[in-house]
Design a protein that fits this description.
Helix content: 10-25%
Strand order of the largest sheet: 1-2
Number of strands: 2
Number of helices: 1
Structural class: alpha+beta
Largest sheet: 2 strands, antiparallel
Shape: globular
Oligomer: single chain
Radius of gyration: 16 Å
Distance between the termini: 57 Å
Order of helices and strands: EEH
């Protein structure tokens, strides 16, 4: 059985798992659905349909549980919090009063 750790797209907390992540699984911290596009290795907001798997069916709600057969748990965080923090720091540095 495959064991791993997934970072929840919603709360950015670690979710340990063993085996397959089911469609009805929820984050133990924030109760968000886990089997969602935003927790998938193929999720990429910069590509068509926001998915790098070209054979996957279109999923409209990327943060809701779905039946996608190509779901693969994403390694690491979503990076959204880090990008936001970096942008905020850059803006503060730019407008910093001397």
């Amino acid at each position: 059985m495959e064991a791993g750790k997934l970072i929840c797209f919603s709360c950015n907390k670690e979710i340990p798992y063993t085996g397959v992540i089911g469609r009805r699984d929820e984050c133990p911290h924030c109760r968000a659905d886990v089997h969602v596009c935003k927790n998938c290795e193929f999720y990429d907001p910069k590509v068509y349909n926001e998915c790098r798997e070209t054979q996957a069916d279109v999923v409209r709600e990327k943060d809701r549980a779905n039946f996608c057969d190509y779901f693969t748990p994403r390694k690491g965080g979503s990076g959204q919090v880090d990008k936001a923090a970096a942008l905020r720091a850059a803006a503060e540095a730019l407008f910093k009063k001397s």
